[in-house]
Amino acid sequence: MPSLGPPTSPGSVGRFAFGAATVVAALLGLLGDARWFAASGAFGVVWWAWDALGDNVVAPVLRLLTGAVSGAGAEEPPDLTMDDTVRLLESHLAADGVPRHVQIQSALRLAEIYRLNRKDPEKAEDVLARVKQRWPDAPEWKAFARGGDDVMK
To answer: Considering the entire predicted model, what is its pTM?
Structure first.
């Protein structure tokens, strides 16, 4: 018994059917009846809509639902090394146009890394002082000084 190949999806069956109907209707239009050209155009529009809706609406919704049911919906975060994380946070501090809260949170996380992982408290204080100099009155500093986010509420 010959192999039938991989199973076909409903989307590929629909694409083939509407594509074939478009081509067949266009060929029948060449035989003399102009209504077949209109039918070919209509099949072509349905073929395009089938592809567009299938690829951009139906498939993402189905992936979301199957991911929610199976528990595999979210992608794993990238594997960042400590050096990658430090470079990312430093780039937030060095770049212009980065919002204040992003820079302050980056400074707090970077100071944590320098203090706890790199055992370099001087560098941690330098990072905090650099960002405090830009925004000395930011409410994040008050919450940080108290050790919690009661101030932020």
So the answer is: 0.46
